[in-house]
Amino acid sequence: MKIQTVEIENLLAYRQATLTLDRPVSLVLGLNETGKSSLASALELGLTGSVLRLAGLGLDELLHGDAKDGSVTLTLARPGTDKPVAIARRLTGRGTSTHVNGHPATKGVYDFFAPAGLAQPESVLRVLCNVSGFFDLKPEKQKELLLAMVDQA
């Protein structure tokens, strides 16, 4: 799985942003309060449907400014196919909804992008969205996780 684009609307620090990730590795650098954590949270929301570090916050605290709803859409390349998958998560006063390729999600979205054989994809993706979580792992666990994410395990 490779994230190709991230589209954020009315979430945390972002009114509207589109980020194209066209390199094998992307590094996000910036001064304090410029949206780095908001980007990581948007990625976590897109991949898992929630953001652990923001659990318990009200909708008004997750949305940008006075927005009534917000969204994050991830376009993911899938190994072995030239058809990407788009996962859209929308936050409204009624909760979070998920669409995959424009259709309401009726099963776990991990089936669309998590490498086969990857145990507990939600936990793995949360670690990858939180740099300190990744570096808290032992080196052999880091290697195992990274290899699993590129289907090399």
C-alpha Rg (nearest Å): 15 Å
Helical content, roughly?
A: 25-40%
Biggest pleated-sheet summary: 6 strands, antiparallel
Average residue-wise pLDDT: 81
Order of helices and strands: EEHHEEEEHHHH
Number of strands: 6
Description:
The protein is an alpha+beta fold. 30% of the residues lie in helices and 27% in strands. The protein has a 6-stranded antiparallel β-sheet with strand order 2-1-3-4-5-6, with helices on one face. Helix 1 packs antiparallel against helix 4.
Structure summary:
This protein is of the alpha+beta class. The chain is 30% helix and 27% strand.
Which helices and strands appear, and what pairs or packs with what?
Layout: E1 2-11, E2 14-20, H1 36-48, H2 59-62, E3 70-77, E4 85-92, E5 95-100, E6 103-104, H3 110-113, H4 121-129, H5 131-135, H6 139-149
Helix pairs in contact: 1-4
